[in-house]
TrEMBL record:
Lineage, uppermost ranks: Eukaryota, Metazoa, Spiralia, Gnathifera, Rotifera
Protein name as annotated: non-specific serine/threonine protein kinase
Keyword terms, alphabetized: ATP-binding, Magnesium, Metal-binding, Nucleotide-binding, Transferase
InterPro entries noted in UniProt: Kinase-like_dom_sf, PAK3-like, Prot_kinase_dom
EC number: 2.7.11.1
PROSITE patterns to which the protein is assigned, alphabetical: PROTEIN_KINASE_DOM
GO MF terms held by the record: ATP binding; metal ion binding; protein serine/threonine kinase activity
Cofactor: Mg(2+)
Pfam families: Pkinase
Length: 226
């Protein structure tokens, strides 16, 4: 945030303009082909986990991690956005307060404990990150062809979702994903844990995302010309 201003009865917030758009737009080509390779997936995950580690260390949960909430600049820098569902789970002395029970977020990315309305904390963001990883691999989250309520029941009652094409992913990526999608929140990895995961050693510089961004800009240009 660059600044905020009171204009009459409104609060205006000035924020960085991220001209690369949302991660969602980079997942698949117009013909439906998956775009992202594992280096690019690791690069996005590392940036998001750094943001989550910072939030969680200050007792804040995001509660709406998904590809729409990840914005990029055209030079490949990744930023976490959409903080409307954030909540405090620790006080200033970093003492645990009452866990949250509100049913908030976006259905397909919600963790089982959010849907069950059982007390939850920072672990919900890690589950949602796992679903976002599945988006980057499969092009969409699990159960996306289902109605939201049906999808929520499946997330709540069934084992963690599986990739459509696991044979196309490395064992490292599958292991990383498995640490995110554990039904028991107490066994789920933390953001700090995941930052040390071997899969993230494949993360590149922001420039590795520039190819995706360039392809997307060309595709948009062709669409406008047709």
């Amino acid at each position: 945030m660059y600044g905020s201003y009171l204009v009459d009865s409104e609060l205006w917030v000035v924020m960085e303009y991220l001209d690369g758009g949302a991660l969602t737009d980079l997942l698949v080509t117009p013909s439906g082909e998956i775009r992202m390779n594992e280096q690019q997936i690791a690069t996005v995950c590392k940036a998001v986990l750094k943001a989550l580690a910072y939030l969680h260390s200050h007792g804040v949960i995001h509660r709406d991690i998904k590809s729409d909430s990840i914005l990029l600049s055209t030079d490949g820098f990744v930023k976490l956005s959409d903080f409307g569902f954030c909540a405090q789970v620790m006080n200033e002395k970093k003492a645990q307060v009452i866990k949250r029970k509100s049913l908030v977020g976006t259905p397909y990315w919600m963790s089982p404990e959010v849907i069950s309305r059982t007390p939850y904390s920072t672990e919900v963001d890690i589950w949602s990150l796992g679903i976002m990883v599945m988006e980057m691999i499969d092009g969409e989250p699990p159960y996306f062809n289902e109605q939201p309520l049906t999808a929520m029941r499946k997330i709540r009652d069934q084992p963690p979702p599986k990739l459509k094409n696991p044979h196309k992913t490395s064992s490292l990526l599958q292991g990383f994903l498995g640490r995110c999608l554990i039904r028991d929140p107490s066994q789920r990895a933390t953001a700090i844990d995941l930052l040390d995961h071997p899969f993230l050693r494949h993360a590149g510089n922001p420039s590795c995302l520039q190819t995706l961004l360039s392809e997307q800009m060309i595709a948009k240009g062709n669409l406008h010309m047709s």
